[in-house]
Amino acid sequence: MDNLLLIIVGAAVILAVAYAIFNYFCVKKMEEGTDRMGEIAGAVRIGANAFIRYEYKLVAIIGSVIAVVVFLVISWQAAIAFVIGAVMSATAGWVGMKIATYANVRVTNKARETGDLGKTLKVAFKGGSVMGLCVAGFALLGVIVVFCVFGLAAHQIKDIADGTVGKNFITKLPSSFTMTLSGYALGCSIIAMFNRVGGGIYTKAADMGADLVGKTEAHIPEDDPRNPATIADNVGDNVGDVAGLGSDLLESYVGAVLSAVMLACELFMHGKFADTQFLNKLLLFPVVFAGCGLLSCIIGISYVLIKPRLSKNVHMELNIATWISAGATVAAGVLLSYFMFRDIDAAVMKAGAGFKVGAFSPWLAAVCGIIAGIVIGIISEYYTSYDYKPTKKIAQSSKEGPALTVTQGLANGMISCMLPVVVLAVAIFGSYQLAGMYGIACAAFGMLSFVAATVSVDTYGPISDNAGGIAEMSGLDPSVREITDKLDSVGNTTAAIGKGFAIGSAAFAALSLMTSYLYAFTGVEAKELIINLIDPLTLCGALCGAALPFLFSGMLIEAVAKAARKMVDEVRRQFKEIPGLLEGETLPDYKTCIEISSQGALKEMRVPCIMCILFPLVTGFVFGPMFVAGILIGATIAAIMLAVFCGNAGGAWDNAKKYIEAGGVEGEGKGTPAHDASVVGDTVGDPLKDTVGPSLDILIKIMSTVSLVAVVVFSKYNLFGVLGWN
Amino acid sequence: MDNLLLIIVGAAVILAVAYAIFNYFCVKKMEEGTDRMGEIAGAVRIGANAFIRYEYKLVAIIGSVIAVVVFLVISWQAAIAFVIGAVMSATAGWVGMKIATYANVRVTNKARETGDLGKTLKVAFKGGSVMGLCVAGFALLGVIVVFCVFGLAAHQIKDIADGTVGKNFITKLPSSFTMTLSGYALGCSIIAMFNRVGGGIYTKAADMGADLVGKTEAHIPEDDPRNPATIADNVGDNVGDVAGLGSDLLESYVGAVLSAVMLACELFMHGKFADTQFLNKLLLFPVVFAGCGLLSCIIGISYVLIKPRLSKNVHMELNIATWISAGATVAAGVLLSYFMFRDIDAAVMKAGAGFKVGAFSPWLAAVCGIIAGIVIGIISEYYTSYDYKPTKKIAQSSKEGPALTVTQGLANGMISCMLPVVVLAVAIFGSYQLAGMYGIACAAFGMLSFVAATVSVDTYGPISDNAGGIAEMSGLDPSVREITDKLDSVGNTTAAIGKGFAIGSAAFAALSLMTSYLYAFTGVEAKELIINLIDPLTLCGALCGAALPFLFSGMLIEAVAKAARKMVDEVRRQFKEIPGLLEGETLPDYKTCIEISSQGALKEMRVPCIMCILFPLVTGFVFGPMFVAGILIGATIAAIMLAVFCGNAGGAWDNAKKYIEAGGVEGEGKGTPAHDASVVGDTVGDPLKDTVGPSLDILIKIMSTVSLVAVVVFSKYNLFGVLGWN
Q1: What ipTM was assigned to the predicted interfaces of this complex?
Q2: Span A542-553, mean pLDDT?
Q3: Which of A 490-549 lie inside 8 A of B, CB atoms?
Q4: CA-nearest residue of chain B to A569?
Q5: Which of A238, A90, A196 is nearest to A690 (CA)?
């Protein structure tokens, strides 16, 4: 039965990857359109490829160092798993970006040739689906490989717990299956971190640079070919919003699934239950649930791709695809939960893993997570869409100038922190009541189980955005732009919901990783896990940990601002020095702008990324594991707040500007002082919502994973332990 | 011996209050100057008095309700102590504001008559010293009264612990001396909260309103009599920066001293030691240390007031006064610590209160706090003064427009969170190592022991600011304004250091209040205090608690923005509708602007203030004491970060603007687009640094105090407890 389940997952993976390859070539063999279109798309593609190549070189160096350290200190298994994770994550990001840079111009061309919204949507979504399927497919592929190669069967884990296998030849530390799994998760996290941060800096530096001079000073529209930063801006969409997003969600997905698996191992090794059959189920459930989710997503995605005539309501069509995927996942989940756990004694489940409602416990906890994700998404929409009061207020404030626009947006962002957190708290408490700490992990992978569908929708957004840019730059008929704009605007709305899932799942995954972390150095005899914040050392850790997301965010914002300032100077220079540029007679020097964004991103991403890897390590070896536990909890709490704040403040500023452009504020519109003020708000919000917010989600997981990998070492060897201070 | 010590404190209090009264009448009998000066000062005074009267009426109603609740639920002693606390805090704020509104015009007049910087400084500082002496004097007066009336002697506390006295006649809950003390602290906190929040909204609404139209649109200088909001702005300085600051620091001072006293009681009642003599010492030490501090401050203040010829270096003279006060306090403290604790057995001190270095332990812990306060102040100066890189960077960014100015400031503020927190963590760990949890409380009152001197300096700032405004509005010779400007600019620098002490002492006091809170419902048998953040209920509390400072800050910013927008509309209306106003032929309608600020502040302060009182109460009765413990720790951590962020971001924007005005950025200065951009930054920062930051310091203490007062009730009666969920 267990093998059958694994085969189903394997089949889902093969199906998903095959489907992705099919869609990839389907898109690629379409026509590019006019020469000018091909030229521009080519420039974007070359820029994006060049950046990713540079970035991956840098990551390869850092990754190799980490792999060697993991090999020497932890185990060869963990090192190999780390490399597999890094390769999976990097490949998913790379393939997704590749297809996005092919799809964009083909979307433009389809709109140009057919003038049909539905047909154009199909091309864009087909491009997006490649990324969606690759993210889930590669993630699960890696999981299966690690599972099969490094031991799935429960007896093996037991041997490891007994210390009979897996001792590392250098440090002689007990290595274990959980360490190998966390090595895999770490590999995914590292790539995700660099892709998100690097891409985030790139895209916003280009975007801000283009807007600050183009829109505000020269008063030319967005994506105008006269703007030298406009190609860089389009490259940014691909490296940030596509490759960054893909690696990010792959990381979240893997983190969520594996944190549940690791927790099951720890519960077993700490003697919470002795039934190896139950252990096997607990280990398999997350993976098989993810497999069911992937199959459901294939159905959901196919709905859009196969349906002969899509309706004009793009939003609805995409929602249907998502709902089909989510609904089928939930339906398959209840069957899975029942059939997997019905044979296990209810008392064992309750005592061992805190399952309070029998076989349905893990499924119910997963549903808790899904509902929380949706509700947080709806709350985000309330605080950021201009259909509601908060964003309207910001738009109204614009009449009083940029200062009050910014002030009102800050207020809005801060106020918006409470409700999502309350939802999160309710879901944490609920999933814990249903299925213990394992339930919290279930909530995390529940949220992400239909990730293939959400990533497809999320990727379709920047593809359409790029398609619009290409239409503008190639001087196509405005009707083409109209179609792509419609697709793009729908993408913005769906992105808000996606953020709810991103932050929610990050919080849940971080919590269950933290639990595994505590188990990893807590003796088997300990009755209860404790992070005691009234203990001064732990409290100091929590304080420093809480400051870390602020420091990290500040560094990212500064990085974007720095690169954006350079971009502004360059664009100003070109406007001044290149004769005939503003009149549209000569083309600007796009390449220099691409260079500035690339160099800025590559240079500025290093310090914050390396910092958040080293911070828990260094402090762990100095102050010991309880200090790091404090850091993890402090950083998680602060990062959740900041991520919500940044996402909602930034989103609201953006939409307040759009509200004014749409004529929502009486007597105001494009070009009025109120609109200029709203552009200031939007520009301030840009790095917050697109660079800082998403990076914070990864920050908390990467810190938890790094700590989890290293804790077996620094819990034994740390300065404060030697001094007897902890 | 103990009685002698109390007599010394009593003498210090009497001396301080007498000195304050003397200085009050000294200042009052000085000349006001020209009729126009008297008129303007009169308008400011009337406006300030009217606002305080309204505010105190509102506070009286809310305070009465709380007093009745405390009486019914806790004890009559606590209710009376609550009223005493409220009266002390309200009086200190009121007296300080009163003298500030007399002193301002007399400072102007002294500058006008003598043209001498030193003589003018003396008047301003004499005014400030009234507030400084009143804050410390009234705070200690109340403490002595509560001590003497409600039982100082240790045997009485023991009786209470045994349950033989102090049962309340309605609920029959065990009442205790600590409850009475926390009632006193709560009284001070409530007034401080309302004064700070109300004053903060008032002053920034007026300031932003005046600047947004005056400086940015009409391009008239600050404090120009043609600006209708200018009197309101000056009133704001008095109700916000004087009365608000006074009540705030009185609250911090009381909180710090009493948290140590209460902790000593709890340690004794929980059987950590049985030596009543040691208990007596632990109870007295904070109060006597504060008394020594007050005496030292009287010497320090006298240095400035008595020295025949003050040097031109105002900054140095004020620093000398502060250093004398601090130095004498530290010197007196070491003697006090030695003579009080030398008779106690070192083993008892170590086992009972964690004193690791014998009799010197509490003194060393207090010194830890003082050093931490100074270092945090220096760090704040680094991040906010334009002598250093961070602020210079913001000024440079202004060349790229308001968006990048704001962005760079946000980045600066976020980055600036790490270092102060690290200092705080080191001090927490250090003072705990030296003298246990009692040591953390010592660090808190150590920081504030020379509060009379720092408040004198802090109050002298807004007095000088007001004096400058009066000079401008009365059309006096620019040389007068030059003198007051010099005094004012020194005030700005010293204010930065003051903020370090405010946030640092708030963090320490909150921690030791939290410890008392945990003791208050933990059984005597418990070996260790625990706030376990991996426990889901506590974690949920921490998450919601961390969101609370964000919600609170957002509400305050929105309140300021709302009132400011009204002010902007009114100022614009007057400029448009009153003929001859901008030409300086007619006077504007100052009164309407004062009304707008008053009404705005009174209306907007209610919800956030009441929210942070009710939040821990309501959740306590629903989810129980561990949830509230989570709230307290989450709110404290988040509030520290936000307070540092707000203070430093706001300060840096302010000074970046001044840097540009001073010609620091090549080719830029008043009136250039870069300066306009920096004004936007300054305006955004205004509510952050002057409304939100200081209010957050109180927020965490008021929540701790409220919880401490109510925990004896809700730890027994709460919904989750009834349901068996916690």
Answers
A1: 0.93
A2: 97
A3: 511, 514-515, 518, 528-534, 536-537, 539-544, 546-548
A4: B400
A5: A196
